[in-house]
Design a protein that fits this description.
The protein is of the alpha/beta class. The chain folds into two domains: 191 residues, 3-Layer(aba) Sandwich (Rossmann fold), CATH 3.40.50; 153 residues, Rossmann fold, CATH 3.40.50.2300. Helix content is 40%, strand content 18%. The protein is built from twelve helices and 15 strands. The chain has a seven-stranded mixed beta sheet, with helices on both faces. It has a five-stranded parallel beta sheet with strand order 2-1-3-4-5, with helices on both faces. Helix 7 links the parallel strand 8 and strand 9. The chain starts with 8 loop residues before the first strand and ends in a 34-residue tail after the last strand. The relative contact order is 0.14.
Length: 391
């Protein structure tokens, strides 16, 4: 439907600022608030202001679904930004499908999922795990210890990663999962096990408060990141800022975005964000996905003159945006994003030195059709998305 001239555009926000994943989700909420401030200052949606309805699910999966239902039924919201862990997202999807609403999900996840009512702007394993496996096996060796938090995403991602490692001649020496609320002592025992097995590197899908426990236990056990580094797809600048740069230094992360990306768009975005949040504000991969998906939605609403999900489903597929990571594109077929791929090594300042990057964006492959980066996209000014070579 067309937007009445006097009506704001209602958007729901479901990011936890408390609980085990509150740290990273708070950054996604901040990115959303920042993007909406930019949009409203620029005239909103054809003169209409975006009005956010913000909820804190407290990192409890069931709360995301309950709050999504409340936003849709009681507040008249048809567009929702949010969710972090797959357990929460999977409960929200039936809600948005039942009400023909849309969910915009800005978090890396395991794939093997499609919903007409969901747009995913975070990375998939083919965009992070494949390049990370290649890099770590080349630079450090073939024996891998895998550790993850005890929920859907780590299990599925490690299953895919094991295939990647095996196909490249490597082996998994052990695989273990840790409760989301596990203590540091729990992680200390695992770190001692890592030291005993002496793998070439550790692949981590630990999230939330467990990230600090893992890296702190790693350091206390005398493990040296120059010899046995942690390679992660879930450790960002946010977690490193919380635990201290000394604990993160020397370890690796694969992501579409790091704060250190050296582009004019990123530099300007950081400058504007620090004016909005304060000069010490830190960004990360999940922050960036939450930021650019809000702008893509706004552009789609402007183009269609509507916030009706049916209209937006025609507009968003194929849309491009100059995001801080570089130009991105929403896939016309699978509702995921063509994204950039980078590997960073954490430094003493709590930032990442980018040690490898793909020269072109990669198409998302949610069903892991091929264990190589997925190609076949248009070229820069058209976003070429082929396997390419590292630079």
């Amino acid at each position: 439907m067309s937007l009445p001239r006097s009506e704001p555009v209602k958007i729901g926000v479901l990011y936890s600022t408390t609980g085990v994943t509150g740290l990273i989700e708070a950054s996604q909420q901040s990115a959303t608030l920042f993007a909406v401030d930019e949009i409203n200052r620029a005239g909103g949606i054809n003169g209409r202001e975006i009005q956010l309805h913000v909820r804190d699910p407290g990192s409890i999966a069931a709360n995301y679904a309950t709050m999504a239902e409340d936003l849709i039924v009681d507040k008249g919201v048809r567009l929702i930004m949010g969710c972090y862990m797959s357990s929460g997202r999977k409960l929200v999807i039936p809600v948005v499908e039942r009400h023909n609403a849309l969910l915009f999900y800005p978090t890396l996840y395991e794939g093997f999922e499609y919903s007409r009512n969901v747009f995913c702007t975070g990375t998939l394993p083919n965009q992070t795990c494949v390049p990370l496996a290649d890099y770590m096996l080349e630079k450090f060796g073939s024996r891998v210890f895998m550790i993850g938090s005890d929920y859907i995403y780590p299990y599925e991602t490690n299953r895919i990663m094991k295939d990647f490692v095996f196909e490249r001649g490597g082996e998994t020496v052990e695989e273990t999962y840790v409760p989301l609320d596990a203590s540091e002592d729990h992680y200390r025992a695992i770190a001692e096990r890592i030291a005993l097995l002496s793998p070439d590197f550790v692949f981590s899908t630990v999230v939330g408060v467990g990230v600090e426990h893992l890296y702190r236990s790693f350091a206390k056990s005398g493990l040296n990141p120059r010899v046995t580094p942690i390679a992660s797809v879930t450790t960002s600048e946010a977690e490193i800022a919380a635990m201290g740069a000394d604990l993160g230094e020397g370890h690796f992360t694969s992501a579409s975005y790091f704060q250190s990306v050296d582009t004019q768009t990123n530099r300007q975005c950081l400058e504007n964000y620090r004016r909005f949040m304060g000069r010490d504000a830190v960004t990360n991969m999940c922050w960036e996905a939450a930021y650019f998906q809000m702008h893509i939605l706004a552009n789609a609403m402007r183009m269609m003159g509507s916030d009706d999900p049916v209209s937006l489903l025609r507009a968003i597929p194929g849309m491009e945006f100059d995001a801080p990571q570089g130009r991105v594109r929403m896939d016309e077929e699978n509702h995921h994003a063509y994204l950039h791929t980078r590997i960073g090594r954490a430094n003493s300042s709590g930032q990442f030195d980018i040690v490898r990057s793909m020269p072109e964006v990669l198409r998302a492959d949610p069903f892991v059709i091929a264990h190589t980066p997925a190609g076949g996209g248009p070229s820069e000014h058209g976003l070429s998305a082929v396997a390419g070579s590292w630079s």
